[in-house]
Design brief:
This protein is an alpha+beta fold. It is 17% helix and 35% strand. The chain is globular and about 55 Å long. Residues 11-166 form the Pseudouridine synthase RsuA/RluA-like domain.
């Protein structure tokens, strides 16, 4: 657990989540990062009682990268409000199908969640029940068979990056749900929550955190070369 902690102070803790890890418990009953971290802190700090830990935001199970947890209720309420106000800047890296797309583009769509298959339906214009989804991507590396995109997220919708990139014809590597040709061996997708920038909810200092990319994936490694 310790090697996954990329930032920690008295108020918050930021984890570099691995592919397949759950950020919090769900109907699968699999152990979540929330429980793992609580148990880790309890043991490490020798805490006799319950450990307070609150999840500030989520990333999908097949995705890797940065997740913020709050260690105090004050930090949790302030960070949750910051997420709502879009005061936490989130940057992602995505490895996508190699197609002819603009080098840089701002995408605006409207997404509606289909509860039956847990998938986002993408609409080009405002539609009943659909929420506006905005992101900007830049192509930052040209690989033999893929493109590496850096994505700045303006809204935080369900499966937003996965759905919007699929809509423009460049599904994320391994993402069968949104049109990838084949799955990844680990069942994950090549989408990584790379960077977080925000003003600390208590100290008011600027915090910038970058997560190393997964080291057990040849395509991710090629992105660093």
């Amino acid at each position: 657990m310790e090697e996954q902690i990329v930032y920690e102070d008295n108020h918050l803790l930021v984890i570099n989540k691995k592919v397949g890890q759950l950020v919090q418990g769900d109907k699968t009953g699999d152990e979540s990062l929330l429980e793992l971290i609580k148990n880790f802190i309890k043991k490490r700090d020798g805490k006799p009682g319950n450990v307070f830990l609150g999840l500030v935001h989520r990333i999908d199970r097949p995705t890797s990268g940065l997740v913020i947890y709050a260690k105090t209720s004050k930090a949790l309420s302030r960070l949750t409000q910051m997420v709502k106000n879009r005061e936490i800047k989130k940057t992602y890296w995505a490895v996508v199908t190699k197609e002819m797309i603009p080098q840089s583009q701002r995408l605006t769509h409207f997404l509606k969640k289909n509860e039956k298959n847990n998938k986002a339906i993408v609409f080009p214009k405002a539609t009943d029940g659909a929420k506006e989804a905005i992101l900007t991507y830049h192509v930052i590396k040209n690989l033999d068979n893929y493109l590496l995109l850096e994505i700045d997220l303006e809204t935080g919708r369900h499966h937003q990056i996965r759905a919007q990139l699929s809509k423009i014809g460049v599904p994320i590597k391994g993402d069968l749900k949104y049109g990838a040709a084949r799955s990844n061996p680990d069942g994950g997708i090549n989408l990584h929550a790379r960077k977080l920038e925000f003003i600390h909810p208590v100290t008011k200092e600027k915090v910038e955190i970058t997560a190393p990319i997964p080291q057990n994936d040849a395509v991710w490694k090629a992105c660093e070369e």
